[in-house]
């Protein structure tokens, strides 16, 4: 196996062990391989190892990288986990199977219109700003219930779950617990939480999927590939 495939296997084993320690089924948490800034040559070994769930941060990068890969591996499930601008909504609807960064009414409205036009309905997650960080995307906790209602009832978006990115320097566990509580309140039980540095803690706190980049692909390249 290549280094990336070996790292993937090691992360998957750690994830299964974390689930077992928490009394959960070993396959309770899906692993998203976050391939942002890594080109097709880096992704291919992970695909050849049988992995099919991937995530990207940017619409343009997914458009450049994934069409050719998906011709060879048509069962790939691709998630958008980065910030989405409303003027990129149609492109996101065409490129992704899941959009995890629905975080404000303007984006939600643009996605609903794009889905109607494109005839595709990627599943949507609301990104929640659990740390109330002014520089970070995500709906405020106290605005979440009304926003979810608008997305579901007014816009008819296919809502699937909640996502959060805890503050870098903070203990992530309180943020995971908050998101789990918010999921229960809103009836959106699928939780996208946990990254390379904290995915085992996220698994213990009820995560449904973890987003793993560097632990699978290694350090970010010095320059992103053209998008």
How would you explain this protein's 3D organization?
- The structure is a single chain.
- By secondary structure, the chain is an alpha/beta fold.
- The chain has a single domain, classed as Alanine racemase (TIM Barrel), CATH 3.20.20.
- It is 44% helix and 16% strand.
- It is built from 9 helices and 8 strands.
- The chain has helices spanning 3-21, 40-48, 59-72, 89-95, 105-118, 144-154, 172-186, 199-204, 214-217; strands spanning 30-34, 53-56, 77-80, 98-102, 123-128, 159-164, 190-192, 209-212.
- Strands 7-6-5-4-3-2-1-8 form an 8-stranded parallel β-sheet.
- Strand 2, helix 3 and strand 3 form a beta-alpha-beta unit.
- Helix 4 crosses helix 5 (105-118).
- It is globular.
- The two termini are 28 Å apart.
- The relative contact order is 0.17.
